[in-house]
């Protein structure tokens, strides 16, 4: 069953008129992970942000984004806000951008949870402590009292994953969540994403340049180039039997770079199973 259906999504610059994403159509099956791959500037981030309706004011979008029977493109900002967080949850490449730099981490987490649950202060602290421990963050209470700049990129990503564990969103959109991390943190964060899927049963859209990570996580893969979807299919088909030359180029040129990562991840990815 499709949880999300995007039809003829188009994103364009309202000032200059240039089309940045054209006529994209794709589906996200319930419980599945769809990876979006493609060269830099191909429209992967704009596609994710269009689903969240978080593209900047200058950008306009049309088409249909059907989620749980409702077209998100038709909703006003208030209705959209009520869906962000609990139903649609976005994890960014740079964890620093997800948090207010002037407040300690705990403030953001408590405010977000208060929007969706009626837990008192102690209950919230306890839930956060458990969730943060489960993503292997040591000293959760200490972390709640730290500013974002006092934590590493990998820690911030794990804080975002801990929050997702508590919110149990239907769809997680992760935009290059491992790109800025060193290899060891990457390994740990990918493991946490796998567990997040297992524990919450969420569906996921995962944008990444790193095909080693994609092979580990994705069930389906969609390839974008210059704002268009040029190919999509199961991860196994895309990695071993792509129809499009560009997809073959992309997967073969990344293969060498990813060998070391696959080694660290313990070998086989989805396509090899
Ligand atoms: N706010 C904006 N106004 C105008 N153009 C934009 C805006 N944001 C992005 N673009 C342009 O839209 C195109 C697609 O950008 P997008 O960020 O979606 O690429 P991407 O595939 O995610 O790339 P990367 O892998 O480098 O993150 C790029 O050419 C980019 O310069």
Automatic annotation (TrEMBL):
It is found in: Cell membrane. GO terms for molecular function: ATP binding; ATP hydrolysis activity. SUPFAM superfamilies: P-loop containing nucleoside triphosphate hydrolases. The keyword Plastid does not apply. Keywords: ATP-binding, Cell membrane, Membrane, Nucleotide-binding, Transport. Residues 4-251 form the ABC transporter domain. InterPro entries: AAA+_ATPase, ABC_Ni/Peptide_Import, ABC_transporter-like_ATP-bd, ABC_transporter-like_CS, P-loop_NTPase. It is a peripheral membrane protein. Gene3D superfamilies: P-loop containing nucleotide triphosphate hydrolases. It comes from the Bacteria. CDD domains: ABC_NikE_OppD_transporters. GO terms for cellular component: plasma membrane. NCBIfam families: opine_ATP_CntD (NF047578), opine_ATP_CntF (NF047576). Belongs to the ABC transporter superfamily. This is ABC transporter ATP-binding protein. It comes from Cohnella thailandensis.
